[in-house]
Amino acid sequence: MIRASTIELTQDHLNLIHCAAKEMSRPLLATLYIDEGYVVACDGFKLARMSLQTPEDFEPYAIPVELIKGIKIGKGVTLKVERSELDLKLQYGDVLVTGKIREGTYPDYKSLWPSGDSVGKVALSNWVLKGLLAALPKAKSETVVVKLFPRSVNSPVVFEVTIKGSEVSMDGMLMPMKVDW
After folding, report:
1. Do 132 and 67 have their domain in common?
2. How far apart are CA 82 and CA 120, in angstroms?
3. Which stretches in the chain have pLDDT values below 70?
């Protein structure tokens, strides 16, 4: 028997749905996976996780994206998620959404996590990355390829953008942040 549990998600946690699968051909990837200590999202090409406080003896589960898509809870507000067996209750303010967890075995994302030392490190601010993403040529997502070429910790990261089947290309540099590693 699965113990009931309650967690609280912020808008930052909910934003991870941008890394979850959009199509239902792999239904477990069209979820936010609530693991011990993390919220995880993966679509097969990108994987992101964010730390999360979970109760002791926590049983992982998957929240279908369709239950949380469109929820905007705002800064400083949390989405309370209650789980009992297969049922979910999501509540923020006066809004209550109910549904079922997505059953199945979530891919073992921990085994995919690279081990060993990094061959290089570069820190980029979110506004630099957002600016690059906003500037990308508009095309079908699978045709745009962004290549990053870090040279050293404090030098610019060169990028190249190509669009399959197009004469259009783009390149440039992203300035790193100075951080203490």
Report:
1. no
2. 41
3. 1, 118-119, 139-142, 168, 181
- Sheet strands side by side (includes 87-92): 5-9, 79-84, 87-92, 95-100
What was the pLDDT predicted at 168? Answer: 67
* Residue 169 and residue 96 in one domain: no
Name residue, tokens 């909910």. Answer: 14
The range of the structural domain enclosing residue 139 comes to 126-174
Model-level pTM? 0.78
Q: What is the amino acid identity at position 149? A: F
Write the CATH number for 103.
3.10.150.10
Q: Please report the pLDDT score of residue 140 as a whole number.
A: 63
Q: Give the CA distances from residue 121 to residues 80, 118, 153, in Å, rounded to whole numbers and listed in that order.
A: 36, 7, 5
Same domain as 35, residue 80: yes
Residue 121 in any domain: the answer is no
Structure tokens at 51: 């730390």
**Are 21 and 43 found together in one domain?**
yes
pLDDT given for residue 39 in this prediction: 95
